[in-house]
Amino acid sequence: MTGKILAGVLGAACFALAPAMLHADPQSDLEVYQRFFKEKYPDIPFTQFADGAYALNEQMRENWEAIEEFPPYGPFVDSGERLWAAPFANGKGYADCFPDGPAMQHKFPRWDKEQGQVVTLSLALNQCRETHGEKPMKYKGSPLVDLLSYIAYQSRGKKINVVVPKDDPRAMAAYQKGKDFYFTRRGQLNFSCAHCHFKNSGMSLRTDILSTAVGQTTGWPVYRSKWGTAGTLHRRYTGCNKQVRAKPFKRESEQYRNLEYFHTHMSNGLALNGPAARK
Amino acid sequence: MPSKTTNKKTDQTTGRTARQLLPALLAALMLTATAALAGKHGAVIEEGKSLTFDRKKGNCLACHYIAGAVSPGNIGPALAGMKARYPKKEDLRARIWDVTEFAPEAMMPPFGRHKILSEDEITKITEYIYTL
Q: Would you list the DSSP string of B19-80?
């Protein structure tokens, strides 16, 4: 039974990750996780993990490259560009909060010492609005997703570099919470994120090829054919929680922001390539 | 099965004695009984099969290859040769009930422990899987 042997080997490999999970040392975690995938897929160039499941299957990759010829997320980028430029009621705009311009996705998520919490790009955009007397955007659909799409497009090629300040125990705790989230079994079906995206990455769950944990955060927002629109990383979290019949958390909840912090840190060194198209 | 009164009637019209009739009657009875039993078992297996394939029930094809199934996943081992692997049927059932008792890291949902399926559904699925 090659299937059985394979499942066994992968099981053992994942088990080997467990000891590293015990102490939160982000730097050594990073090495363990990235090495895991490099060793599992010796023929795949590391940068390619940023393409999700399409890194792992030649046929799917070809279909995907054809879709990217006429990117379905184009209109979201265009609309986002207009939103970025439109002034607030007080005459200010996003550029006043983000003086380096829209190519700044790689600065998020970040630990904010004053606020004592993980600030994601979505949260930062809303904080900017509130500072200037504007109502915060809903964490769903337009205009947020449009703005994120434009920012992602402008940030393409920037490298992910999430920093977890070791001298701030609250930041370390947030990282640890995100990590626990990723490795904890949940829902009636009892799977952790890691079950699907570590040892079983590359395997078929029915007709879906499971993507690798490393590289999962580079391409957001993602235009999904299944959604018929572009959506955020937190929307995907919701979907992956529901898939195991677990109650999802709210978008931009503390749980999901901590998860994003850990999850994005795992991809440090990879280049941003959003928005992306997925099936 | 013919009722007693019709039997009697038949007896009278054909003029045969009950003693003559008994062996034939018994044989007929036994045949119907076996057919009914086989039919019942067959129906359980059929039910088990649809529970196995149903995405809202077992959804076993998400992860397992089963001969003849359309687009199965490959996360778990192929389900084949079950009688050879599990001489005792209850050992197979125990794995469907909660595989993590045997393989703690396994991704397979604990169908019994988490009440994803009823005990009866698990029994029916076991009957079907045991034929593979």
A: HHHHHHHHHHHHHHHHHHHHHHHHHHHHHHHHHHH-TTTT-GGGT---TT-SS---SSPP--
